[in-house]
Design a protein that fits this description.
Length: about 400
């Protein structure tokens, strides 16, 4: 993995271009973001791929948890304050990474599976299967399940599929979607469409924050950090292979971003210090994911595997926030307590005013400004951030 200093140097030449694009993209969100108008506008551009299919957690969930028995929800104000449709279930003030990627690909914003599962017409340009609190491991995120939280905290007992949609279940839903599309347009046409589409996959954060680092899980007693990273990589490889067998060929897999300096972690220190220990756990996982993608690209015919180094991007921003247009990196825009990170953003809590200057929206999630920046790096960036090729080149294959 490239060092943060190398990434800072390599990204320096793109900062001005990114900042110009970032200002334009974020400005566009306020007046045209989240309803039918922006989808129509995006849809008028020539789409680079047939569809975008999304798998992940709260970083890219856009409403799949809204009707679940879960504490992991964001369908209330001030979430969505900069999204024209208001609160939709997105865990930030505006765009997620995949919202911006959809626009760059010339696609409409991708609907959540909870909305699109009954409409093949909506599925034809992509579906978002992501679910807040989801992990690579089915048991991750169990602390967010309503009616099981007391049992979980007392006994560590959870229902592995309640309150969130783990990656394995997201894959089940994708397989069902591919079958539905095949019934509508024919299996051969569906296979061709899915094979040319892009899959964005971003998981792993909850396997650490809401599993390995949780005292009521016994995971940390059973595995050291290296063993746990190996376990996750093995499961991830099998899951990505399932997606391949369902017809996917073009993958963008995001590594876990730096979590040692998120507001919730900062708030656990009286001095508001970052936790190198947390990041040291993530580094071997990201290295494993990168190696797994290289192996799968060699083993699976016609598979294209792209790795997005979220960790490197976050470290670069933290190393020189002003260069990327950020002024506040040590607290959330919306939250309670030390670093606005001890309790995350509550309903109708007033957020900060200058949201585009904040790195973090709440105790755990970045602002829309960061999401737009990362998406543009994924689409246009060099091999120091997205490798072996960027999303624009992947779409053209």
């Amino acid at each position: 993995m490239a060092s943060p200093s190398f990434i800072l140097t390599a990204m320096a030449g793109r900062r001005l271009l990114l900042l110009i694009g970032l200002v334009a993209a974020v400005a566009a969100q306020g007046g045209n973001n989240g309803g039918g108008e922006e989808e129509e506008k995006a849809g008028k551009a020539a789409a680079l791929v047939p569809a975008l299919f999304v798998f992940g957690d709260s970083l890219i969930d856009n409403g799949n948890n809204n009707n679940l028995a879960s504490f992991a929800k964001a369908n209330y104000f001030p979430y969505g304050i900069d999204f024209a449709a208001g609160p939709t279930g997105r865990f930030c003030n505006g765009y997620t990474i995949v919202d911006q990627l959809a626009e760059l690909l010339g696609l409409p914003l991708v609907p959540p599976y909870s909305q699109a599962q009954a409409s093949v017409q909506q599925q034809l340009q992509g579906v978002n299967f992501a679910s807040a609190a989801a992990g690579i491991l089915d048991e991750s995120g169990g602390n967010f399940v309503i009616n099981q939280s007391i049992s979980f905290f007392l006994h560590g007992l959870i229902n592995s599929n309640a309150g969130r949609i783990p990656f394995n279940k997201q894959i089940d839903n994708f397989e069902a979607t591919v079958e539905q599309i095949g019934e509508a347009i024919g299996k051969d046409a569906a296979a061709a469409m899915v094979g040319r589409s892009i899959l964005f996959v971003g998981l792993g954060s909850n396997d650490y924050l809401n599993n390995y680092l949780m005292p009521n899980y016994d995971t940390r007693r059973r595995y050291n950090p290296r063993q746990f990273a190996d376990l996750l990589a093995d499961r991830y490889a099998a899951q990505l292979t399932r997606l391949y067998k369902a017809g996917a060929r073009k993958f963008v897999v995001a590594g876990v971003g730096s979590m040692g300096c998120i507001p919730n972690v900062l708030a656990q220190s009286v001095e508001s210090r970052c936790s190198p220990e947390v990041d040291d756990m993530i580094i071997p996982f990201n290295a494993n994911v990168r190696a797994t993608l290289r192996r799968l690209a060699g083993d699976l015919p016609a598979a294209r595997m792209v790795f997005l180094d979220n960790y490197g991007v976050f470290k670069a921003i933290l190393g020189d926030p002003a260069a990327y247009g950020f002024a506040v990196v040590d607290r959330g825009c919306c939250g309670i307590g030390r670093n606005s990170g001890q309790v995350t953003c509550l309903p109708f809590m007033p957020p900060c005013d200058d949201r585009d200057r904040y790195l973090f929206w709440d105790a755990f999630h970045p602002t829309a400004a960061v999401n737009v920046l990362i998406a543009r790096e994924a689409f246009y960036g060099g091999a120091d951030v997205v490798s072996p090729i960027n999303v624009r080149r992947l779409a053209a294959l």
